[in-house]
Design goal:
The structure holds 2 protein chains of 2 kinds. By secondary structure, chain A is α/β, with parallel strands linked by helices. Chain A is built from 5 helices and 6 strands, in the order βββαβαβαβαα. In chain B, strands 1, 2, 3, 4 and 5 form a 5-stranded mixed sheet that branches. Classes of the chains: A alpha/beta, B alpha/beta. Bound molecules: iron/sulfur cluster (SF4) (2 copies).
Chain lengths: 164, 282
């Protein structure tokens, strides 16, 4: 994808690494506030991510992350409150441990755990959110699209003389 | 006395003294081994202890369907013992109704299963042999190392043979949820072959991340020879190094991903960088 800058009004949309899709799960109490702030301040951000608000990141099961990769999402960010500052009885701590356990599995099969970005309490302010998203997007931009995974799958199938 | 004879004596004694109502083990049926529930001491001579056959899930189902007062004996190996422990921790079976008759595995069996603990916590007879570390096995090493691209290709090649028989799920002694996500179109499309590599296999593997007792059941059962147990190795290693936790070994300890563990207890929480995985975290 070519990088280009579009001017629509005074909002700058930077289409960088535009082929990649990124999903951000943001907790209402922390990262979503950062995301809202970044929007209000009209900070220019990569256009490749979409935010899904969740009450608490403990609602984001590891299965949802896996499912996102299946649907061709190249990077998943899970952003919640800092550990110890959860409004739901430390649910984010348990969720954090689970997601941390998913990383070795992603590495084992070659999806690469760097596609899963976890942040706890580091994106509350708008500038923190903007910075986190920007560096995550550029990191994902440098990696091959996750569909490479399914493509190597298809290749393996056609090598066996099957097609679908 | 051989290991088998020792087990026979124990089983007979248990049944005669009415300490259990039945003992689950293997017997030969037309020269083929099959699981068998022995309720009469006179039948017990037919009991065999080879080959390795996972019985924990069967024992769980027997206890679930039998009357409340039914007590069961189980001839079990290390993997079954760990599986029973995990099932009991998750309230899937009542440990008080179950008497275990532990037997150790041979070194050869342990190598075949890549098993690090080829014996139950208590054994009725025989000798414990050393387990092995999965990464010391050549085939396992081949599968678990290399660049991301190499790993991806390797696993794509393996997993795309899957005929989605659900054998890996059915055989796994810990896979007991009803309903199962692998039968839910939202997560895994039914009726599609091969199974979607990422969602079918990774969801299955991840659900066993902190419960897999490395029994090698999944690898043994797969009709197309996918070395499925190797998917669990890195997660088991992580639990071991971060929390000194191994599923099935300690009946008292709750899985660390389910508990409120204080900061600083595991290495995971001493790294400030960890709260933001982009800044030098894992
Ligand atoms: S995932 Fe495989 S090795 Fe682990 S407990 Fe289940 S069947 Fe056994
Ligand atoms: S046992 Fe093998 S073929 Fe059957 S569903 Fe599991 S991976 Fe697929």
């Amino acid at each position: 994808m070519t990088d280009r800058t579009e001017d629509s009004g005074n909002i700058q949309v930077v289409l960088e690494g535009a082929g990649r899709k990124i999903v951000v799960f943001a907790c209402t109490w922390c990262a979503l506030i950062g995301a809202d702030g970044a929007g209000k301040k009209r900070i220019s951000l990569p256009a490749t991510f979409r935010v899904i608000p969740v009450e608490c990141i403990s609602r984001v099961e590891a299965d949802a992350v896996i499912r996102a990769f299946t649907s061709g999402i190249d990077g998943v960010a899970v952003m919640g409150c800092h550990l110890g500052g959860c409004r739901h009885n430390g649910a984010n701590l348990r969720s954090a441990r689970k997601l941390e356990l998913l990383k070795p599995l992603l590495d084992t099969v070659g999806i690469d755990s760097r596609r899963l970005f976890t942040s706890y309490g580091t994106a509350h302010e708008y500038h923190q959110f903007a910075q986190a998203i920007e560096s995550f997007c550029s990191q994902i931009g440098e990696m091959p699209p996750v569909s490479a995974w399914s493509r190597s799958f298809v290749r393996a199938m056609s090598a066996r003389g099957e097609n679908e | 006395m051989s290991l088998r004879e020792e087990v026979l004596t124990r089983v007979k004694a248990l049944l005669k003294d009415r300490r259990v109502d039945g003992v689950l083990g293997l017997s030969l049926f037309e020269k083929e081994p099959v699981p068998c529930l022995f309720e009469d001491p006179f039948d017990v001579d037919a009991l065999v202890i080879e080959p390795k056959w996972l019985l924990a899930k069967l024992a769980m189902n027997i206890l679930k369907t039998a009357p409340q007062e039914y007590r069961l004996g189980l001839v079990c190996r290390g993997c079954d013992d760990r599986a029973v422990t995990e099932l009991a921790k998750r309230n899937q079976l009542d440990r008080n109704r179950l008497t275990l008759l532990g037997i150790p595995c041979t070194a050869e069996q342990a190598r075949k299963c890549l098993c690090s603990t080829p014996y139950p916590r208590e054994i009725v007879a025989g000798e414990r042999v050393e387990g092995m570390y999965p990464m010391n096995d050549e085939q396992a090493q081949l599968f678990l190392t290399g660049s991301m691209e190499e790993r991806m290709k390797r696993w794509a090649r393996e997993l795309n043979r899957c005929i989605k028989c659900y054998g890996c799920r059915n055989v796994c002694p810990i896979c007991v949820c009803i309903p199962c996500k692998l039968e839910d179109d939202l997560w895994v499309k039914r009726g599609h072959i091969p199974a979607d590599m990422v969602s079918y296999h990774l969801i299955r593997a991840f659900h066993l991340s902190d419960t897999c007792v490395s029994c090698a059941g999944c690898t043994d059962t797969c009709p197309v020879n996918i070395p499925l147990m190797l998917l669990q190795v890195s997660m088991r290693e992580t639990l071991k190094s971060q929390y000194a936790y191994e599923p099935g070994l300690d009946p008292e300890r709750v899985s660390p991903v389910l508990t409120e563990q204080e900061k600083g207890e595991g290495t995971l929480f001493q790294e400030p960088a960890w709260i933001d995985s982009l800044r030098g975290g894992s």
